[in-house]
Amino acid sequence: MSVTDDAIEAIKQMIVDGELRPGDRLPREVELAARLGLSRNSLREAVRALALVRVLDVRQGDGTYVTSLEPSLLLDAMGFMVDFHRDDSVLQVFEVRRIIEPAATALAATAMPDEDIEGLAVLLDSIGDDPSVEELVDNDLEFHRRIAVGSGNAVLSSLVESFSGRTQRARTWRGITEEGVPERTLAEHRAIQQALAAREAEVARAWATVHIAGVEQWLRRALVDQPPA
């Protein structure tokens, strides 16, 4: 482990132990370096790294503060990295979605308020039976976002939103190139909504798995069929 890694670990431990809380200002650099037994340079590098992943907020002329540490804020850094995926590595994003979104959907079957589940049906009805690809993808993103929020787990919800939004390009691509996508997508969404309304967690989980796996399988085939660059 490098000296900078040691410094990152030391600051992280102060946060985990509750010595530094969300919104707290870090001690002055010279004081913190001496206290942790680190050089000011290594401490500076650690602060820079933790600022990049949104754990710390460096305010010019004011000091360095611990951020709110909200899951959505911390996961922004992960989403930033996912944005730089190669076409084939987006498959890994779908693999993650296939693991976490069915879990979120099952939780939503017990935690999501009735009016929010009814709102999903209204959302699906709002685009009619023959939506454009753009309308379908926007509706799809909102459908999955609402279910993630309905899980009642803020960390899981942030993960779902972070990964789901980063697959928008692939979903648009599928809508343009594959026949029958709107009908299939809406049918699967309605099956998920109905399972949620019936409070059938495992049925909702199964439909969510089928839904996401279908896009993943299409993308695998599409990438295999791509001509070499």
Descriptive labels:
229 residues, mainly alpha, Arc Repressor Mutant, subunit A, Four Helix Bundle (Hemerythrin (Met), subunit A), 2 domains, two-stranded antiparallel ribbon, WH_DNA-bd_sf
Description:
InterPro entries: GntR_C, TF_FadR/GntR_C, Tscrpt_reg_HTH_GntR, WH-like_DNA-bd_sf, WH_DNA-bd_sf. Keywords: DNA-binding, Transcription, Transcription regulation. This is GntR family transcriptional regulator. Residues 1-69 form the HTH gntR-type domain. Pfam families: FCD, GntR. Helix 1 crosses helix 3 (40-52) and helix 7 (133-150) packs across helix 9 (168-177). The chain contains eleven helices and two strands, in the order H-H-H-E-E-H-H-H-H-H-H-H-H. The chain has helices at 3-16, 29-36, 40-52, 71-82, 90-111, 114-125, 133-150, 154-165, 168-177, 181-197, 201-225, and strands at residues 56-59, 63-66. Helices cover 71% and strands 3% of the residues. The chain is elongated, with a radius of gyration of 22 Å. The protein has two domains: 3-66, Winged helix-like DNA-binding domain superfamily/Winged helix DNA-binding domain (Arc Repressor Mutant, subunit A, Orthogonal Bundle), CATH 1.10.10; 72-225, GntR ligand-binding domain-like (Four Helix Bundle (Hemerythrin (Met), subunit A)), CATH 1.20.120.530. By secondary structure, it is mainly α. The two termini are 39 Å apart. The chain has a two-stranded antiparallel ribbon.
